[in-house]
Specification:
The chain has 471 residues and is mainly α. It contains 24 helices and two strands. A hairpin with a 2-residue loop joins strand 1 and strand 2. The N terminus is likely disordered.
């Protein structure tokens, strides 16, 4: 994966994009702002996200081609040329494959009764106390996000949460649980060098080792996790059972739960458990495993999804129907829009503004870079943003080659935590909103921002103080 990222950085058209007239760049910046506004008014427009972003992808491609911004010609891969539509290569098919494969894998694995068993075990351990259950699931979300990818973690934990709260008869708390878990996926994504793509891009450019990354990031992750769970409990009124009678009643209620409920076949249950452990292990080590590291995590997700489908091979089409195709179409269109924005130098314009901030010094400049990169990554893909900032910092004579510079960590924290500002800021928060809608709960784009903003501000304040004072 690192090799592929390095090659993509070398081929990035940041320098070439500087030839684009400023008026053209501002035009496309306006298109990006309009798309974000349309997503914010999603419910009023009565349109799905995939349709909204798809329309803007069509417009951006048409104008981009009319202005001769797009690099036309055959796509070269492995020494061969492929005549693909120009809007196909920009799509990050690895992300699409991860979402598709993980969704199928989780859906089929859930039929084994494994997730129900885990959910009931955790529920029993909590004694039916909602606050303890929130803490258990919060920690599990962070751990899963650190060793898996954020999207897979959100899909698995979201499924478990729905089962647990349904068993407890507390479905009214599901919205709060899922929002907190969605925010925590981006906290967990900071824990290791391989937890997120921005970590890999910036960490590699800075020369930060895996161990060093963990030692620097882990104290913040612990504090931010505790703060997020505490704020979530306050915001959504998830309280500890106050009286002995209430605790006794809840304990009696959960003691009657049967963790074997839903297990139709012991063999398939243990097969599902084994495959889940293997899935987590392979995903966590995908960047270093021979052959797998070249094929990517998307290949792993699709492969495990297909293996699980063998159990229901005669009715596999039912699982295909359950896939959230709107989410996949949204991501595909979003990748196209972001690519056109990069070719139009919109991302380069953002990067140039941040480059000027570097000259303000480590304290002022570092804090501003963290904040501005967070805002930028909340409305655009943090991967190209991280790539540009990585190149800018690497080219600075004082920062490049100095992994101890706080500027590197400002970008890392900002790019990851910015995903908590909006539902399109990261794939995992978008998946969290999708799960919320799947269970019939209402949460608009603006509604998410209103709820998540206090959490995100706390995260960014903590990150800024941590980077400037302790890194």
């Amino acid at each position: 994966m690192t090799t592929l990222l390095a090659s993509s950085l070398e081929g990035a058209s940041i320098e070439g994009a500087s030839d684009v007239p400023l008026g053209t760049t501002l035009l496309f910046l306006g298109i990006l702002v309009l798309m974000i506004a349309a997503l914010a008014l999603e419910e009023k427009l009565h349109a799905k996200k995939s349709v909204i972003v798809g329309v803007f992808a069509v417009i951006a491609l048409l104008i981009g081609d009319a202005m001769h911004l797009l690099p036309l010609g055959a796509v070269k891969f492995g020494g061969h040329e492929f005549n693909l539509p120009i809007y196909i290569p920009p799509i990050d098919w690895n992300v699409i494959a991860i979402i598709l494969g993980s969704s199928v894998f989780v859906d089929v694995t859930s039929r084994s009764g494994l997730f129900t068993w885990i959910a009931i075990k955790l529920t029993k351990t909590s004694g039916g106390d909602p606050l303890k259950l929130l803490a258990f699931y919060g920690v599990m979300t962070v751990v899963f996000s650190a060793v898996l990818n954020n999207v897979t973690a959100m899909i698995i934990v979201g499924s478990l949460t729905a089962v647990s709260l349904d068993k407890l008869g507390r479905n009214e708390k599901l919205l709060g649980f899922l929002v907190v878990e969605g925010l925590l996926t981006n906290i967990g994504g900071l824990l290791t060098l391989i937890s997120s793509v921005p970590n890999i891009i910036v960490g590699t450019a800075a020369g930060i080792s895996f161990v060093e990354f963990f030692l620097v990031a882990s104290p913040f992750v612990v504090v931010a996790t505790i703060a997020t769970i505490w704020l979530g409990a306050k915001r959504f009124e998830i309280q500890k059972l106050a009286t002995e009678e209430a605790r006794a009643e809840a304990q009696e209620q959960v003691s009657g739960f049967d963790e074997t409920d839903g297990i139709e076949s012991n063999f398939f249950f243990w097969f599902g458990a084994t495959m889940l452990a293997c899935f987590i292990g392979v995903i966590a080590t995908a960047s270093i495993l021979p052959w797998i590291k070249d094929l990517g995590m998307g290949y792993v997700a699709l492969s495990f999804g297909l293996i699980m489908l063998l159990r229901y091979k005669a009715v596999a089409d039912k699982f295909y129907q359950a896939v959230d195709w709107d989410l996949l179409a949204f991501f595909a269109a979003l990748f196209v829009v972001i690519w056109v924005m990069e070719e139009a130098n919109v991302l380069g314009l953002i990067g140039q503004g941040l480059a000027g901030i570097i000259g303000l010094g480590e304290t002022t400049g570092g804090g501003l870079i963290l904040a501005t990169s967070a805002v930028a990554s909340s409305v655009t893909d943090n991967i190209p943003l991280a790539a540009m900032l990585g190149k800018i910092l690497a080219g600075d004579p004082e920062i490049g080659g100095n992994p101890e510079s706080p500027f590197w960590w400002s970008v890392i924290f900002g790019a990851n935590l910015g995903g908590n500002l909006t539902p399109i800021g990261s794939a995992s928060t978008l998946v969290a909103v999708t799960i919320i809608h799947k269970h019939g709960l209402k949460l608009s784009f603006a509604g998410f921002v209103k709820i998540a903003l206090p959490f995100a501000l706390v995260h960014l304040v903590l990150a800024t103080a941590y980077v400037l004072l302790f890194v």
